[in-house]
Specification:
Rossmann fold, 14 helices, 2 domains, Benzoyl-CoA reductase/2-hydroxyglutaryl-CoA dehydratase subunit BcrC/BadD/HgdB, hydro-lyase activity, four-stranded parallel β-sheet, single chain, FldB/FldC_alpha/beta
């Protein structure tokens, strides 16, 4: 019998490989929508009944096409996603949706929109921007409500049917509740999941209902999971849309028991209070805190609380080349912590230079 963890790992390995798109939807299959961004209102994508999946980069692939249109000063994740889109790596997408979670995502949106206009032969689909802001103002809340409403209307126009918002909110709340319970397995002492395994569990390429079923099975099988007794690390900083950095760190005997990016612990959210666009706008207004949307003080307070919750023994801040924001937070984070902290700065995409980690904070298992 295949365990839930094995099934989730397999689904994670399939991310970025969607079924063929169904232009015109004459066969009844859902639209295939690729999306980018940490604050994408994915609940609306589920409510629309589209086949949605998050577009990810690949550190092992050729960035040349992405570099050509975005330049090398943009976060390499965005450059890799663009290169992969132009190379057809994600199959035939019906639509692309981008959120304004950071400057690199916005640059990617503008590049996609302009390429579709001036190079129709590239085969890029319509691209839509969801501009959610995160300032603590009533004017920002009103702005976000308008953007959420416009996106909901656009999805209804694309699919030709009303959104099932109540069903989507209930499903995403349940998935988040189960992910929170799974996260506790990683926080156990010793940990019952590695950081790499939690990435797979949280980002398995599955419809929400199938994901929920496997999460329930995983929790039922928790007593059979292996124990991992390495030095416990909290990983802060840049997003990790691939497992490469996790694998590099954990190969040294560390265990990543928590993080503060949207592919990890930040994918676990508070329940959305009501099945309405007002509640949804409020929910995404306050999502985070990621390095690009929160103050250094907010990030430091979050780090201190998260380190205590997951009983980390070492804090590692990781800042990728052309993604400098996480490094700016590090002094405040270090001052707020009562455990050793190290900064891995200007790292290559998908790589981790662990020399400083080995020298200053060796792992002894």
């Amino acid at each position: 019998m295949v365990t839930a963890l094995a099934a989730l790992e397999e689904a994670y390995a399939r991310r970025g490989a969607p079924p063929a798109a169904s232009e015109g939807r004459s066969d009844g299959r859902p639209l295939v929508v690729g999306y980018v961004g940490a604050d994408m209102p994915v609940v609306l994508l589920t409510a629309a009944g589209v086949h949605a999946f998050r577009l990810t980069g690949d550190p092992e692939s050729d960035f040349a096409l992405g570099d050509r249109y975005l330049g090398r000063g943009v976060d390499p994740v965005a450059r890799s996603v663009l290169a992969r889109l132009l190379a057809g790596a994600f199959g035939d997408l019906d639509r692309i949706v981008v959120s304004h979670d950071c400057e690199a995502s916005l640059r990617l949106f503008y590049a996609l929109r302009e390429l579709r206009r001036v190079e129709p032969g590239a085969g890029l689909p319509e691209t839509y921007l969801v501009d959610i802001l995160h300032l603590p103002h009533r004017t920002t809340a009103r702005y976000n409500r308008r953007r959420i409403g416009e996106f909901a209307a656009r999805l209804e126009a694309w699919t030709g049917r009303p959104l099932d918002l109540a069903g989507a909110v209930a499903a995403h709340n349940e998935r988040s509740r189960l992910l929170a319970a799974v996260a506790e397995l990683r926080r156990a002492v010793p940990a019952r999941l590695t950081g790499r395994q939690f990435l797979a569990v949280a980002n398995a390429a599955l419809p929400v209902d199938e994901h929920i079923a496997l999460l329930e099975q995983l929790l039922a099988e928790a007593g059979e999971l292996e124990e991992h007794a390495g030095r416990r690390v909290f990983l802060s900083g840049s997003e990790h849309d691939t497992p490469h950095v996790y694998e590099a760190i954990e190969s040294e005997g560390y265990v990543i028991v928590g993080e503060d990016h949207s592919f990890g612990d930040l994918s676990v959210h508070e329940p959305i209070g009501a099945a309405g666009l007002d509640a949804l706008a409020e929910h995404y207004h306050h999502s985070g805190p990621t390095a690009h949307r929160a103050t250094a003080g907010e990030r430091a307070a979050h780090a201190a609380a998260a380190v205590r919750r997951c009983r980390a023994e070492l804090f590692v801040a990781y800042s990728r080349i052309a993604d400098e924001a996480p490094a700016w937070d590090f002094p405040a984070q270090r001052a707020a912590l009562n455990i050793p902290a190290v900064l891995l700065e200007r790292q290559e995409y998908g790589r981790a230079d662990l020399a400083a980690l080995r020298k200053e904070h060796p792992c002894v298992v």
